[in-house]
Amino acid sequence: MNIQDFITDFEEQFEKVEGGSINPETEFKSVKGWDSLTAMLVIDMVNEKYGKTLSADSIRKCKTVNDLFGEINSL
Amino acid sequence: MSAKINSISYYLPEETLSNEEINTLFPEWSVDKISEKTGIRNRHIASENTFSSDLAVKSAEKLFTEFKIDRNSIDFILLCTQSPDYFLPTTACILQDRLGLPVSCGALDFNLGCSGFVYGLSLAKGLIQTQQATNVLFITAETYSKFIHPKDKSNRTIFGDASACTLITSDGLNDNIGNFVFGTDGHGAKNLIVKGGSLREAMNKHLHDEITDDYGNTRTESNLYMNGQEIFGFTLRSVPKLVEEILRKNNITKDNVDLFILHQANRFMLEALRKRMDIPEEKFFIYLEDCGNTVSSTIPIALRAALNQGRAKAGDTVLLAGFGVGYSWAGTLIKL
Questions:
Q1: pLDDT value of residue A38
Q2: Residue A11 and which of B65, B141, B201, B234 are 20 to 30 A apart at CA?
Q3: B307-331 pLDDT, tens per residue?
């Protein structure tokens, strides 16, 4: 999986984020609209597309989109 | 002697909490997002002086009236609750008195959450099959709202209070309640828990300290805590397997099930499960718009609503599956 595809999937989980506004260095918890529901949507998307289950702890640990991408790859 | 679900009634408290009110309390939440993702528009909340036994009396009286049930015919009462009136006595004993049931009645409470309705069916079936009882009044009642911190927007959005009353009766040789599947993983206990009022935490000096999580929910350790993301992971892992196992144990294929009624946690979680299990929308019932997640009452409320709406009718085969706090899960197949 490549990070650009992951970012596209990731952006789709937000209600009001324009495609292309998130990059690997974006600290996703400060993106407007990030909340516990969005976190669940991300877990769902990762489970469906990548067949892996992200834990609440791993999301808590990650800062940037790149961290999250690395975390998924390590599962 | 075999058992069947004879009738179901439910009661929702009068006080409500709408999405608009939640939005006023927590402006950062959007009404549209709450409605779309959770599928909930309104929850009913027990007033300050209303407790589980009060909700239980309402749902049972409703059942007696709606279905013209003679209360003297009840010979066992089961109550599923995690918010009982007292540590002791058993709330089911209080209900025997308040409902004017015969003193020859058996009565017990059991403490389970979202898997509780299926467990209750299993207990009732066992009592009836072994001829220990003939008319089992099985009540689910919760007032989770009393456990939730006023500033905990996530949990206030999801949970509503309710009680459902189900009468399970003997039905000759017809096997209308099928085989059961159970599961337990106490490793998940910490992910959905209420510590307040418990003996183990009585000496915890920090029990009432306010803490705010990463998502802006404030609570104390005494309040209801739910790690929604972990619970979601648990359901994705276990519910599809649970459903497979229910089908296998009842020798039936998915196509021969008329309706799937899963614990109504929230729309988002149900939709995720439905897609993973490849169940068509018309066979998958969702009912939580006006009540939210009412814990052990979601399945009987949905079942009654499905009957009212004509989505389920006499003779239908319905798969029931509950899962959550514990972790605990259970499922069965019923014939209406």
A1: 86
A2: B234
A3: 999 999 999 999 999 999 999 999 9
Q: Is the pLDDT of residue B96 over 90?
A: yes
pLDDT tens profile B8-27? 999 999 999 999 999 999 88
Q: State the smallest CA–CA distance between residue B187 and chain A in angstroms.
A: 14
The verdict on B248 touching A (C-beta cutoff 8 Å) is no
The mean pLDDT value of chain B amounts to 95
In this predicted structure, the answer to whether residue A16 has a pLDDT above a threshold of 90 is no
Residues 13-72 on A with a CB inside 8 Å of B are 15, 29, 35-37, 39-41, 43-44, 47-48, 53-56, 59-60
CB-CB neighbors (< 8 A) of A39 in chain B = 215, 229
Phi/psi of residue B37, each to 5°? -80, -40
- Tally C-beta pairs within 8 A across A and B: 53
Q: Cβ(B114)–Cβ(B140) under 8 Å?
A: no
Q: In angstroms, what separates the C-alpha of A52 from chain B's closest C-alpha?
A: 10
Quote the CA–CA distance of B73 and B64 in Å, as a whole number.
11
- B293 counts as catalytic: yes
Using CB atoms, which residue from A40, A41, A60 is nearest to B214? A60
Sign of the C-alpha dihedral computed for residues B50, B53, B57 and B59 taken in this order: positive
d(CA B90, CA B84): 8
* Residue B114 annotated among the catalytic residues of the structure: yes
What's residue B203's pLDDT?
A: 92
pLDDT number for residue A30: 87
List of residues 6+ apart from B316 with CB closer than 8 A: B258, B259, B335, B336
